[in-house]
Amino acid sequence: MRTPTALAFALALSTLPAHAKDPALGATTFTVYEAWMSPAQEPGEETEVPKPLEKSLGSTAPSTPRESRKSRGHGQLRFAKDLSKAYVEVNIQGVNPDDIRMFHIHCGPPGVLGPIIVDFGESGSPAKKFSEGKFSVELTNKNVVFVKDMPGLKPSLPEGCPAELGLPGQTKTLAGLEYLAKKGVLYFNLHTKAHTYYGEMRGQLYPVQE
Predict the structure, then answer these.
(1) Domain ranges in the chain?
(2) Which whole-number Å values give the CA distances from 208 to 43, 77, 176, in the listed order?
């Protein structure tokens, strides 16, 4: 026989509103991060490329100082709340798509060169993916890059970034990517023929403010 206390507890539970939601919403509702891209966020000028890396990572066209570049961009990174997929949408201005060499999401705090975590050129030239300055792509776990090589770079990276070769704990899922986005240590970086090493313009990703 139930005690009055047990009965009261059971009654209280039965009157609580249901908190569980429709599982299907996990794929159709999103957590959104955005970046306003500009040359000013690049941590150095193209003329400062380390000498040993000039041949492999240097520019193939004359560079322009950061304050003189007209390139700008805005990008969003939207994670489905069940973290099964993510969507990237970017709009750029002041850049000839034919000049684009690489486009990535990197891991690193503001002002720090960090490793690539998503490579938008893995399946072909990223320049061909821009249409009238707009870029759109869907991401899954397979798009999260396991960093094997960082030639010449030994940045001081925050927790969870793929920092050293072969160490466990490198980010390999969208769930890990979203964790880094929450910490503010992801950034878009667009690389062109004239600005290949540091990049044409960069945008640190932060949560969208309602």
Answers:
(1) 29-207
(2) 24, 10, 19
